[in-house]
Specification:
The protein is an alpha+beta fold. The chain folds into 2 domains: 99 residues, 60s Ribosomal Protein L30, Chain: A (2-Layer Sandwich), CATH 3.30.1330.60; 114 residues, OmpA-like domain (60s Ribosomal Protein L30, Chain: A, 2-Layer Sandwich), CATH 3.30.1330.60. The chain is 33% helix and 20% strand. It contains 6 helices and 10 strands. Strands 6-7-10-8-9 form a 5-stranded mixed beta sheet. A 3-stranded mixed beta sheet has the order 4-3-5. Strands 1-2 form a two-stranded antiparallel ribbon. α5 links the parallel β8 and β9.
């Protein structure tokens, strides 16, 4: 074999050996013996992912929508176990200074209270809720994190003969009677209502209710007569007949238990709803 041929063969072998070692020891490939490294491929440390802390019932910044998560049913049961025949659940919706009010309510706290009420309204009658709001100092972490935003209080005490709620008023009646309870608070309320209707127009809806004593048909009639009694009082104070509509629901829509006298008194009522 000539020296030239031996030189060419040596050059070719040198090329393949050099290329093979490059591939063999490439940092992107597994690190192997003869390359000055360990026998294991280098693996980057995993990046820890921190999950957002969640609560049984939580909200986000500038958002009135409630989120229910694990533990909500237990939380609801704990709240409702303090309910009696006629106590009232006060829901206080919190909101932070600096939040944008994206709701149609006066503030986000009140909007959140309404959201929470919707989650509980199958468990309590409408009249057993009181909603309010509370403004808190801004927290920087609240802007990106989930946060709790409500507190719950049970309000005790006997209901009065007239009760002014956010969306309606309730006027109560004695047992088996179409005459309202005698109390100056009722007279004052009806006087003010008549003045509003005469000055601002609008309509009033009067719906009569009873407890469950007696037959359903008799209670239907009794409830309607109660609504007409309030209608006649407003008419006597100058409200137009066209502004007043009367309805009856009899015993079908109790707001308290009919198992106690206190609850039955709660249910003997006329509900007043005004639309200006």
């Amino acid at each position: 074999m000539s020296d030239l041929l031996k030189g060419i063969i040596g050059l070719v072998l040198w090329f393949f050996l050099t290329f093979g070692m490059y591939k063999y020891c490439n940092p992107s490939a597994d690190s192997l013996p003869f390359c000055g490294g360990s026998t294991q491929k280098a693996v980057s440390a995993p990046v820890a992912v921190t999950e957002a802390k969640r609560f049984p019932l939580d909200f986000q910044w500038s958002n009135a929508t409630s989120n229910t998560n694990e533990g909500f049913e237990a939380m609801k049961a704990t709240i409702l176990e303090e309910a009696t025949d006629n106590n009232i659940l006060e829901i206080v919706g919190n909101f932070y200074d600096g939040e944008e009010n994206t709701s149609s309510y006066e503030d986000l706290g009140l909007a959140r209270a309404h959201q929470i009420k919707a989650l509980l309204q199958d468990e309590l009658p409408e009249a057993r809720f009181k909603l309010s709001s509370n403004k808190l100092d801004a927290l920087s972490e609240a802007r990106t994190d989930y946060f709790e935003s409500a507190s719950f209080n049970w309000l005790e005490g006997e209901r009065g003969p007239v009760e002014i709620l956010e969306d309606r008023a309730i006027i109560r009646f004695p047992y088996n009677s179409v005459q309202k309870e005698v109390d100056p608070k009722i007279d004052t309320y009806l006087e003010g209502l008549a003045t509003q209707l005469k000055e601002n127009g609008g309509n009033v809806r009067l719906t009569g209710h009873t407890d469950d004593q007696g037959s359903a048909s008799r209670n239907e009639t009794l409830a309607h007569r109660r609504a007409k009694v309030i209608r006649d009082i407003l008419r006597a104070k100058g409200v137009k007949r066209s502004q007043i509509k009367t309805f009856t629901e009899g015993e079908s829509s109790p707001i308290s238990s009919n198992d106690t006298e206190e609850g039955r008194r709660d249910n003997r009522r006329v509900e007043v709803q005004v639309d200006f």
